[in-house]
TrEMBL record:
<comment type="similarity">
    <text>Belongs to the sel-1 family.</text>
</comment>
<protein>
    <submittedName>
        <fullName>Uncharacterized protein</fullName>
    </submittedName>
</protein>
<dbReference type="Pfam" id="PF08238">
    <property type="entry name" value="Sel1"/>
</dbReference>
<dbReference type="InterPro" id="IPR011990">
    <property type="entry name" value="TPR-like_helical_dom_sf"/>
</dbReference>
<dbReference type="InterPro" id="IPR006597">
    <property type="entry name" value="Sel1-like"/>
</dbReference>
<dbReference type="InterPro" id="IPR050767">
    <property type="entry name" value="Sel1_AlgK"/>
</dbReference>
Amino acid sequence: MDDDVKKYKQYLKSAREGDPQGQIDLADCYYHGIGVDKDEVKAFQWYMKSASAKNFSAQNDVGHCYQNGIGVKKDEEIAFSWYQRSASGGNYLGQINLGYCYQHGIGTIKDPNLAFLWYFKSAEGENYLGHDYLGNCYQHGIGTRKDHGIAFNWYFKSANGGNSDGQNDLGYCFQYGIGTKKNDEFAFQWYLKSAKGGNHWGMHNVGNCYKDGIGTMKDDEKAFYWYSNSAKEGHDMSQNNLGHCYLNGIGIKKDEKRAFHWYMESAERGNSYGECNVGYCYENGIGITKDNEKAFRWYLKSAIKGNINGQNCLGNCYQYGIGTKKDEEKAFITYLVSAREGNSNSQNNLGYFYQNGIGTTKNEVEAFNWYIKAAKNNNKKGFNNLGYCNQRGIGINKDSEKAFHWYLKFAESGNSNGQNIIGYYYQNGIGTLKNEKRAFKWYLESAEGGNHLGQYNLANCYLNGLGTKKNHDKAFEWYMKLSQLGDINGQYSIGYCYQHGIGTTKDEEKAFQLYLVVAKKGNGNGQIKVGNCYKNGIGIAKDNEKAFYWYSMSAEGGSSIGYNYLGNCYKNGIGIAKDNEKAFNCYLKSAEGGNSIGQNNVGNCYFYGIGVTENHEKAFQWYSKSAVGKNKNGEYNLGNCYKKGIGTNKDENKANYWYTKSKERRKSIFPS
């Protein structure tokens, strides 16, 4: 016969003889299944026998049974009445539970003052658990004024008395500087004492310390160990964190099915973080078959409990129609609730809604204000959006220096898109001093982070010697990486490299094939290049009609350069019948699109009366626009206008100025 069975039989004999303590011990055996099969009904019956004999400890146990429906129908009012009897008899646990009922309104009306009073009575009896509850009252101002210094002292008494809850709470005080100086090492030591005493929150917090290196060396395996111990004891927050470990391979091999299992364990115990993460798993098919409707239901459960992450995810569901009907107004309201509670993703999302008038009236000032809040909470997207607002003048005056500031934060957060933007700002001196070396550095970081635009700009740096030594081989290498990923810019640039023998052997046929791939994807520049290849017989047999077709495709796609080439075709009869009026119209569309070559050609049309009535004043106007756009021919023609008084008054100084500009530009293009 083992010891547990012997104890059970002894307690049974004592209980039947009417001993109240024996009755409690027997009830404990039935409650925990010690030496006998677990039987909550019998446990309750024996607690009641002892309680009826005015055993104050048993009265507390009966209250516990009624509060939680153990062996009897749940009834919080009756639970409250039994806690009253136990507390009035001086039982410290009864006093604590009575205080808890008053604090949370269990079986009675909420009354923080009476909660504090009963916690205080328990603490007066040198009860270390009562000390902890009293510390909690002073920390949060429950039934008394908030006083972190006094809270710390009560936690300290509780912890020194060996109470694991007090030890955990004392660790929390040291970690966050509550009533004492912040000290991570002391925090870790007290959490560890609490954990070794079997406290689930203590175990959880020790796991956090090891995971984040708080007061001790970072150790993912030890973090996993403590989360695992606490989780197996049913601690819902640790179960959630254990899921996180399995999902991300922290201290254990990555296992999505186990991640989902532990998230579900946490969720089923009502943990709002676990519920949110179960939703995330269902939404993304992590460790379970993807199911958007279930994702929505779990996010809803989490959100209803006030979890701001759950609320943000629920907002996403309403915004995009994930597992529910799309409803932008509900999305807006849900983001608003979460944003007001400090969720930075919701703050950023709310800014986007205000900026674009989604689910609410458009309000760019409100958008900017919410982006500010998101950014202050270190939200990466908030950094980016604030940069964009300052760049474009959305909800705030344009300010390139502030735009640079926020984009820099975005870049420093490790975002490859932000790194590319900052490279562009340094390259062009936007909001900061021009610095090509720094531009190159940021493009390199962006490129190594897998950003296609960063890789393209890095290749351009190597091609042109911008911020680094010119290196055509490396330029070709980066363009090739992009090309192999199907990136249009990369394919176009590799075509250019093959056409001109940059970083590789010249191969016009390969160049043409690559340009054709890009052109068929609808890229205007690629279509122009294919047109040029057909027009000039580069890598393909010369064919003016096909050249005209591809120039037309580019123009139809809105390319101002394409319109200029199409104008040349109509003017010179390339692949189509000569038609000066159509030539003029094409040049005009190119010019109105800001193309300086097209602007110069419109000037020529007005000057010579090609496809339009001769008009020297309009010729002068278009040459001026072309010259301002730094077109060498436009600059030269504008010089002629000032020299000869064409469409404007004669002005030798201005004529010489524009002749010089044109000459300098030609020299830079064709160096001696």
